[in-house]
Amino acid sequence: MLGMLIYAVCGTLSAAGLWFAYRSFRRRRYATGLRTASVALLPMGLAMTGVVRFVLNMTFNPIAWAGIALVGLAVVLFLVARALDARGVPDGGSGPSPEQRPAAAPAAAGGGEIASAPRREAPAQKTGGGTGTEDFSDIEAILKKHGI
Fold it and tell me: Are the CB atoms for 21 and 40 separated by under 8 Å?
């Protein structure tokens, strides 16, 4: 009974799509007609291969929906773990506890070499009476060099 209903619905969809493809061919829109015909043949092809019956049986099956929920939960848990990893939240059990770490470890982990590098000072800016104008002498020199 279900098989007859599936073939009736999919056959109607395919027939309607082929009718639209025929109208496109009559208007000399061959590419559109071919695309429409290819999409129109899909429902009947899916019905003949049994994909439609599989999807219908899965749709009304509560065990299948529970399985989909479990897959969704697994994906969410994976994404949360990945986000925590990116933020640098420790796992808590994979390494030595803070009391067991040597005293030199925090300094090395903190990147002491980078912190000891001398900082570059920002170049001094000349202000013209507090108006916020900068010294454009190097820009003027470059422009003069290029003849502008």
Answer: yes
pLDDT along the chain (148 residues), means of 10: 89 96 93 93 93 86 87 93 83 60 55 54 55 75 88
Please tell me the distance from the alpha carbon of residue 47 to that of residue 15, in angstroms, as a whole number: 14
Predicted TM-score (pTM) of this structure: 0.45
Q: What is the DSSP letter of 93?
A: S
| Structural tokens at position 57 | 């049986």
DSSP 123: P
DSSP 27-77: TT-HHHHHHHHHHHHHHHHHHHHTHHHHHHHHHT-HHHHHHHHHHHHHHHH
